[in-house]
Amino acid sequence: MPESTAIVRAWQTRFEDILPGFLPVLSQSPQLLFQAMHYSATAGGKRIRPLFVYASGRALGLHETKLDGIAVAIELIHAYSLIHDDLPAMDDDDFRRGQASCHRQFDEATAILAGDALQALAFEILAADPALSTQAAAQTEIILGLAQACGAGGMAGGQVLDLASIGSKISQAELENIHAFKTGALIEISTTAAAMLTASSSGERHALSRFGKLTGLAFQIFDDLLDVTGNSDIIGKPSQADAARSKPAFPSIIGVEKSYDRAYELRDLALAELVHLAGNTDTLAWLAAYAVDRDR
């Protein structure tokens, strides 16, 4: 899919260009907090969640400019979660995306507050987004959807379950449930937010929701595989981290080969959902394929 690759790369470049404009001005006070927010939010990465926002919008005929605020807000929620995940009380990681974790670059208190501030900023962006202000009902639905995706019924709840599983033997179904909360919920809102702005049918919404859930789980399984098989210099953090913390992961529960099989199965199920969308789904298909074919 060479055309889709070019489109995705253009979206990534564009997102890096617009992101700083949504962040606080570095020269203003409290400067240390703003520096920490910029440090983590602009540290690069795959930008997979904004890409899902733009790709689902493309399938529904929406231009990127209509979706920028949504894409940035979701990515800031993701950035805040990574800051907190890396803290000593959580996963205790010293590196993220090839650089020192926020609490190592600054300090733990500043990192916690930077994460808090990024989370608040995400909802401020959505509430003040001029591209959404003419569709108040949809704007409210998107804000509600993101709040649910990152709260106790989503990402935060998944992190609690994840931490509770350390040192325990859990089933594949239990692990999939953890990641449906921790990873899948935020990817699902990334694929469904655009549908809240259009006159999409219930079938299209359901397809995008299912696509997000399935691709999100496939993405997480492949992350677990990269922790076992990946190159630390490429993935940007030490490999074998899950095993070192006695943290349940797909390869340790069902084995490497079956983990690959499950990831590919989920990818195929996700791709099957795209037949229910009338628009151009090439970039969504590209993202589903990328979820299980990458080196970082």
Number of strands: 2
Question: What is the subunit arrangement here?
Answer: single chain
Shape: globular
Provide the gyration radius in Å: 18 Å
CATH class: Mainly Alpha
Q: Look at the helices and sheets and give the structural class.
A: mainly alpha
Structure description:
It is a single chain. This protein has 296 residues and is an all-alpha fold. It has a single domain (2-291), classed as Orthogonal Bundle (Farnesyl Diphosphate Synthase), CATH 1.10.600. It is 68% helix and 1% strand. It contains 15 helices and two strands. The protein has helices at 2-18, 31-41, 48-59, 64-85, 102-105, 108-128, 136-150, 155-164, 172-192, 202-229, 232-235, 241-244, 250-254, 256-273, 282-291, and strands spanning 95-96, 99-100. Strands 1-2 form a two-stranded antiparallel sheet. α3 packs antiparallel against α15 (282-291), α4 (64-85) packs antiparallel against α6 (108-128) and α8 packs antiparallel against α9 (172-192). The longest helix is centred in the C-terminal third of the chain and has 28 residues, at 202-229. The two termini are 20 Å apart. The model has no long low-confidence stretch (mean pLDDT 93).
